[in-house]
Amino acid sequence: MSEISEEMRMTVVVSREWYMAAYALEGAPTSDHLKLRKVKISLALDSIPDQHVVLETLFISLDPYLRSRMTGREDGLYSPQYNLNEVVSAFGVGRVVRSKDSDYGEGDIVISAYIPVAEYCVLSSQALIRKIDADAGILLPEYISTLGVPGFAAWIGIQVVAEPIKPGSNVFISAAAGAVGMYAGQLAKLKGCRVVGSTGSDEKVRLIKEEFGYDDAFNYHTETNYDAALSKYFPNGIDVYLDNVGGEMLEAVLNHVNRHAKIPLCGMISEYEKVWTERKGVRNLLNLVGKEVKMQGFLLGSYLDRFGDFAKEMESHLKERKINSKLKIVHGIDKFLESLRSLFTSSNFGKVVIQVK
């Protein structure tokens, strides 16, 4: 790990950062909504507030929920909105280059859920989640993937909300080649379940079966009759459905659930870019009553008391190679907007991460 030179300690660094220029009510954000600008950050110690650090950003996590913070309205996920003309933030990994907190020293590698999407930033140390041991044998991007938002969401959905899952249960995962889906399927397999996933291409079908251990999968672009597809892949019904897409797929699932099935609602990516009046309605909710189904939405902030259990278990799975991960590393802070927009297409495999440095 490089040391901070005396010259750098006294300099002002120029940092590029993405800020919210205008809210995007519908559709994917564009350069009209998110803009890149340059700001100057002083590294002089007397310019840094107490209990703050200056971070050099190393990796930024791209997650679909970020879109919900760019609408200027509170509905759906009820996410806090980014303020106009202020830098946007995300889950990320950074290196401390200056510190006014005795718990953090120069060179420390840290994680935060609120790292500005910028090359450098001044951040309250209260916003830091933990230090990372760079010599632990785990790649740094994994801390915002397997050990970050996607892994935690998969773990809460399968290990907590869907419990108890019995070995042999029939589990369905939508967006199965995405950041959450790839981990959710593997966690269900570790519990002895039969796991089937839906995804957006034949190549992704092969990926989740060969690399993530799914028992079967289908391409929803070619098997467009979801009701028929679920009849084919779940002749004995669905016991657990981890929903990442909502809309028509959720409606189809409700025609195939078994009695006392569990449906953890992790996300509904098919609906994020629409105002609520244009979203697909689910017409068969009465099935929840007749089959006594438990359908529950969840937000990670409500389960932070379980983060330690999650991190310990998933680190163990990683080191023992029981969990596989697929990362798409995009280089450069300037690629943030393009990479965010790509999350709402079928172009990505696994977890999208921006490598800033």
Fold and architecture overview:
The chain is of the alpha/beta class. The chain has helices spanning 6-9, 149-161, 179-190, 202-210, 226-233, 247-253, 286-290, 307-319, 336-342; strands at 12-20, 34-42, 52-61, 89-99, 109-116, 120-124, 128-132, 170-173, 194-199, 216-219, 238-242, 257-265, 294-297, 327-331, 351-355. The strands form 3 sheets. Strands 3, 4, 5, 6, 7, 14 and 15 form a 7-stranded mixed β-sheet that branches. The chain has a 6-stranded parallel β-sheet with strand order 10-9-8-11-12-13. A two-stranded antiparallel sheet has the order 1-2. The mean pLDDT is 92.
User: What overall geometry do the principal axes of the alpha carbons give?
Assistant: globular
Compute the number of helices. Answer: 9
Structural class: alpha/beta
Major sheet? 7 strands, mixed
List keywords for this structure.
357 residues; 15 strands; alpha/beta; 9 helices; single chain; 22% helix
Gist?
This protein is of the alpha/beta class and 357 residues long.
Topology:
Layout: H1 6-9, E1 12-20, E2 34-42, E3 52-61, E4 89-99, E5 109-116, E6 120-124, E7 128-132, H2 149-161, E8 170-173, H3 179-190, E9 194-199, H4 202-210, E10 216-219, H5 226-233, E11 238-242, H6 247-253, E12 257-265, H7 286-290, E13 294-297, H8 307-319, E14 327-331, H9 336-342, E15 351-355
Parallel strand pairs: 8-9, 8-11, 9-10, 11-12, 12-13, 14-15
Antiparallel strand pairs: 1-2, 3-4, 3-6, 3-15, 4-5, 5-7
